[in-house]
Structures are given as structure tokens and as C-alpha cells.
């Protein structure tokens, strides 16, 4: 086990600014490209991260702290952001994510003030009993998964362009 | 084909600052963790990116422009950075990468001033004939590959910690 709350927070708090630096100013062709039908573009990945801040991570943590294993977590629809037809700029989307993440981390720091709370348990509708430490670890790895997805989407756009080098580029082998 | 020089540069110029924001201040445990034996840690990935700026991308471009297909590219040792036992901080490593990347992009902009140059060809020791546009596309996707590698290395560190959520986290399925 490697989880450490302070270290986990250090990753969670870097994600919004990392995405801001990486994505701000990129062309619409980068921002709207996809790996294929039924896959997300960069904007949709950001909207999904926003949904997680609004409806997933802190809500589940609060459920564990208040109710323990008594009730399963409320369902989180991993595709709900696809139904919203929000018209806004990348900058607005990134800003909303940054603000929501800051709020989430403030709440996290207020809610968890001792290591023993990391062992508290809740009930996941699919997995059964889960611990606070697993939930927060998952939050971190979920960020990493979607950063990985963003760069994979972009790499896909140049699959044909790289020509024979495709063979050396691991990212083009992973879908 | 999607390659566009301006768009390619827009990604290449964002990589150093993205890595700076994402990595600066992370604990040594994040910076030195590995996916397993014989795999790179984050510092080693950065050293590899630095080697590419010093010995690969611009050198190959210059070879194409000067010699065409006459001589194969000089070999680039993708593992050379592992033999250097450089003692320096993450900040120094990131700074060197940023400076070298800035120089590379200045040279790129000086060397390529017309679209027709993108079609010029050189001779890759393994692949045979390759074009300038393929070389520059590969440079972009190479950045993306290593950003993806960085986050995958970090995700691996929490593989056990996420507990049953491992099943939902795509990044933990890709090695």
C-alpha cells in the first residue's frame, strides 16, 4: 500500500492547472478530435471531470462518513455530461473544473482529520464494502486515467501522419 | 492526414510547462516510483526527453535538409540517459528540458519556412525513406507517449490502494 493523504492531495490539486497549461490555446481541431465513434473528445473529458467533482467524490466520502455501510452510494452516471449541450469556451470549462476541485479539496481537508478515518467503510453498489482510502486513491488514479486519455486522443489524430514510426510509439498501441 | 506545422508546434511548446506544473513539488516517492524492474521512473523519462532534444529531432531534421536520403540518420540511443548518473534536482532537469525545447523550436521555425519542405525525405536506418512531416508528427506523438507514460507510472503506484475500483480504471490495464 502506498496511499498517503498529503501525497494524494498533491496530485489532485495539480490536475486543473496542468490541464490549463496543456490545453489553453490549442486549436479546435485538437480540442474536438476523437479516437473514433462513441469516444469522447477533450471537452467531454473535462465535462466528465467536472461531473465527478459535483456528484461523485465528495458525495461518496460524505456518505461513508455519515452512513457507513448502511446505504449504497447514490449512483453516479459516468455518461451524464454527454447529455448536456453546454455552449461555453474551453477557458470557462477549465475554470469551472479548477474552482470545483478547489472546493472539493477544501471539503476533503475538513472532513478527514485523522488517519483512522481512512479505514472507514461504505457500500458501493457494484463492489460492496469499500474504504475511504480506496475512494481517495481512486480519485487520484481517475485523474491520471483521464490525463492519459487526453493525450491518447491527441496522439490518435496523428496516427497516419507519423508514418512508419507508428511502430515505436507505444501510445498508438493502446485503445 | 491531419498534420499542420503550427498545430504541431503548439503542442511541442506546451510540454515543458505542462510537466513543470504537474511535477514540481511532488514527493520523491512519486518521482522515483516505477512500474516494475527495467522500467523508467519520472526523472528518467525527463532525461530521455532531454536526450531527444539534444541528439534526435533537430539533428534528424537537419540531416534530411542537408543530405536527403544519401545517408541514414545517425543512430539515436533511446537508453543512453540511463547511463548518466547526473545528480540534480527535478527543477534543474525540467529547466534544462524547457531551455532545450525552446532552442529546438527556434531552430525548427528557422529551418522550415515552406510547406513543400514537409515533403522532403531522409533515410531512417530501420524504416527506410521518411518525410519531414512524419518526423515532426512523431516528435509530437513522442511527447504525448511520454506524458502518458508519466501518469501511468504514477497510477501504478496506487494499483493496490484503489481496491476493487481497479476494474473501472483503464490506465491500470495498460502496460
Automatic annotation (TrEMBL), chains A, B:
Pfam families: DinB_2. SUPFAM superfamilies: DinB/YfiT-like putative metalloenzymes (SSF109854). Transmembrane segments: none annotated. This is DinB-like domain-containing protein. Residues 12-150 form the DinB-like domain. It comes from Halalkalibacter akibai (strain ATCC 43226 / DSM 21942 / CIP 109018 / JCM 9157 / 1139) (Bacillus akibai).
Amino acid at each position: 500500500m502506498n496511499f498517503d493523504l498529503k501525497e494524494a492531495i498533491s496530485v489532485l490539486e495539480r490536475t486543473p492547472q496542468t490541464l490549463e497549461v496543456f490545453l489553453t490555446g490549442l486549436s479546435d481541431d485538437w480540442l474536438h478530435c476523437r479516437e473514433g465513434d462513441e469516444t469522447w473528445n477533450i471537452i467531454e473529458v473535462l465535462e466528465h471531470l467536472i461531473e465527478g467533482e459535483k456528484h461523485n467524490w465528495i458525495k461518496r466520502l460524505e456518505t461513508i462518513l455519515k452512513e457507513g455501510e448502511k446505504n449504497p452510494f447514490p449512483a453516479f452516471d459516468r455518461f451524464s455530461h454527454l447529455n448536456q449541450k453546454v455552449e461555453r469556451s474551453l477557458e470557462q470549462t477549465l475554470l469551472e473544473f479548477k474552482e470545483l476541485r478547489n472546493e472539493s479539496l477544501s471539503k476533503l481537508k475538513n472532513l478527514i482529520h485523522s488517519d483512522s478515518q481512512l479505514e472507514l467503510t461504505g457500500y458501493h453498489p457494484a463492489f460492496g464494502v469499500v474504504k475511504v482510502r480506496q475512494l481517495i486513491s481512486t480519485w487520484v488514479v481517475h485523474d491520471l486515467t483521464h490525463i492519459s486519455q487526453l493525450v491518447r486522443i491527441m496522439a490518435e489524430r496523428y496516427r497516419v501522419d507519423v508514418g512508419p514510426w507508428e511502430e515505436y510509439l507505444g501510445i498508438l498501441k493502446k485503445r
